[in-house]
């Protein structure tokens, strides 16, 4: 398998954390690419019309994109570990994954907007910050639901990790002790240490 990937992408990290937890990280060849809204990557576009990462290419040439879909594929082929098979247990995990993905989306959106120089939109940045803060407060209240390893807890851990990576000076932990304690423990997992963000192309 080949994964189009960047060490700076929280969504790509999410896929590789899952791969480590499934014990298949060594079966995935990671090809580092640079993608941006203003400069689509032709190599990625060849496989994924959205031009986004992560994009996974299986050995038979089948392509999957969007981290949530890729996790489903990997878990179907090498699990189950990330998604419960019982619908009553599965839906809460999907909800946690959605909130984690949303945290990452707003973090990436805020970062992208803040790099536009004189064109930066203060209202857009403020909206992203508000959504991120509300998400963190929601997670603090729901911290007890993060005890299990699954797609949801992985997504949330990667979202929090991206906040530390890109907005470390704005510590999200004060006032959220339960979430902070959970993340401190999860961040020590071998899968998280092996996939730590690096600010490189």
UniProtKB/TrEMBL annotation:
CDD domains in alphabetical order: GST_C_6 (cd03205), GST_N_3 (cd03049)
Keyword Chloroplast tagged: no
Gene Ontology molecular function, alphabetical: transferase activity
Pfam families referenced in this protein's UniProt entry, alphabetically: GST_C_2 (PF13410), GST_N_2 (PF13409)
Superkingdom field: Bacteria
Record-level GO cellular component terms: cytoplasm
SUPFAM superfamilies linked to this entry: GST C-terminal domain-like (SSF47616), Thioredoxin-like (SSF52833)
Ranges for domain GST N-terminal: 1-82
Keyword terms of this UniProt record: Transferase
Family matches, as PANTHER family: GLUTATHIONE S-TRANSFERASE OMEGA, PTHR43968
Protein name: Glutathione S-transferase
Organism of provenance: Humitalea rosea
């Amino acid at each position: 398998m080949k994964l189009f990937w960047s060490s700076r992408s929280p969504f790509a990290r999410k896929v590789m954390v899952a791969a480590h937890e499934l014990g298949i990280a060594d079966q995935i060849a990671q090809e580092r690419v640079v993608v941006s809204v203003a400069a689509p990557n032709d190599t990625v576009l060849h496989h994924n019309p959205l031009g986004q990462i992560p994009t996974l290419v299986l050995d038979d040439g089948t392509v999957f994109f969007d981290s949530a879909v890729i996790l489903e594929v990997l878990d179907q082929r090498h699990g189950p570990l990330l998604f419960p098979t019982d619908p009553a247990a599965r839906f809460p995990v999907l909800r946690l994954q959605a909130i984690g993905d949303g945290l990452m989306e707003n973090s990436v959106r805020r970062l992208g907007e803040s790099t536009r120089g004189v064109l930066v939109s203060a209202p857009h940045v403020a909206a992203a910050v508000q959504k991120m803060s509300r998400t963190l407060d929601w997670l603090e209240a729901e911290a007890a639901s993060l005890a299990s390893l699954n797609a949801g807890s992985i997504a949330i851990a990667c979202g929090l990790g991206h906040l530390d990576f890109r907005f470390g000076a704005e510590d999200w932990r004060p006032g959220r002790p339960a979430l902070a304690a959970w993340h401190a423990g999860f961040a020590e997992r071998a899968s998280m240490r092996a996939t730590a963000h690096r600010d490189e192309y």
